[in-house]
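queue> pop job 88
queue> type: inverse folding (structure -> sequence)
queue> payload:
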């Protein structure tokens, strides 16, 4: 298949045109796409017509999909597809996750083996808003002062899924039952320590691996030292140079690399305007830090 890869942003995004993700890719196309993904960790693949089964099958070409079996928001046609949506049924229940990704994060960094890749398919875009903002964490790391790089080398961030444990975020009032959900998760889900600098296992590059959404403190530091350090790093991450804001087109399939990016859903829309995304995540491995030789 002849497809092109064209840069969209110096923050690591590119668009892919001419690829049909509804059919299995030939080995050379898969290899070309994989290399493009290492060069550009945000790939916007345009003009896809994908059923849930086809989207899941496309994802499986990159590795096993994360099971979504705990979630009530899976797609009935393929349980590995998670629905993100602001649609509310007449009985008050949500069709999908309403507040998914509303603060900057790397997907599932609160798990011991966070997912490697996320694929999000735009089923329905709102008439305005709904952009996804990405921060390139290679660039965030590389532009830190050398003294800060030395300070955080070998330190760990403590990550947790519950918003009620994290004063840097708020629980969305639009998601039915969200506060109860997060309070229950706070009681049963363990905290996970992740390296603050993550070595990408395929490119060998170092990336900052923290986020305002999931990183609640620094494991090795008392809060009077650790919290100001996190504040300084989160402020640094806001630098415009590292940001790419994806404005969704109909039929976009965007795949991104959670090992070297953070992202957030920026909102800016509301009912009766509907935003509906289908999401798959590819299993990953345990993050590590390997100091440069
Ligand atoms: C996510 O965080 O996985 C979802 C981002 C989005 O919906 O824009």
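queue> result:
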């Amino acid at each position: 298949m002849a497809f092109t890869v064209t840069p969209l942003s110096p923050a690591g995004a590119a668009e892919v045109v001419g690829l049909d993700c509804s059919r299995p890719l030939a080995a050379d196309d898969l290899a070309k796409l994989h290399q493009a993904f290492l060069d550009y960790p945000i790939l916007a693949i345009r003009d896809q017509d994908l059923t849930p089964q086809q989207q899941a099958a496309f994802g499986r070409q990159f590795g096993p999909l994360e099971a979504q079996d705990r979630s009530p928001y899976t797609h009935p046609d393929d349980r590995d597809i998670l629905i993100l949506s602001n649609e509310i049924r007449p009985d008050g229940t949500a069709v999908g996750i309403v507040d998914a990704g509303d603060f900057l994060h790397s997907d599932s960094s609160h798990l011991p083996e966070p997912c490697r890749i996320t694929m999000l398919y735009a089923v329905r875009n709102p008439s305005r808003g709904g952009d996804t903002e990405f921060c390139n964490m290679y660039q965030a790391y590389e532009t830190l002062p050398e003294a800060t790089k030395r300070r955080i080398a070998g330190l760990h961030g403590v990550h947790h899924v519950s918003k009620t444990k994290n004063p840097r975020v708020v629980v969305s009032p639009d998601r039915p039952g969200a506060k109860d959900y997060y309070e229950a998760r706070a009681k049963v889900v363990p905290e996970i320590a992740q390296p603050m600098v993550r070595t990408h296992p395929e490119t060998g590059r170092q990336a900052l691996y923290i986020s305002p959404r999931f990183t609640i403190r620094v494991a090795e530091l008392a809060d009077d030292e650790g919290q100001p350090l996190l504040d300084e790093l989160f402020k640094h991450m806001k630098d415009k140079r590292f940001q790419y804001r994806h404005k969704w087109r109909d039929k976009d399939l965007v795949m991104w690399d959670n090992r070297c990016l953070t992202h957030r859903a920026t909102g800016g829309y509301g009912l009766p305007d509907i935003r509906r995304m289908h999401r798959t995540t590819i299993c990953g491995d345990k993050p590590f830090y390997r100091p440069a030789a």
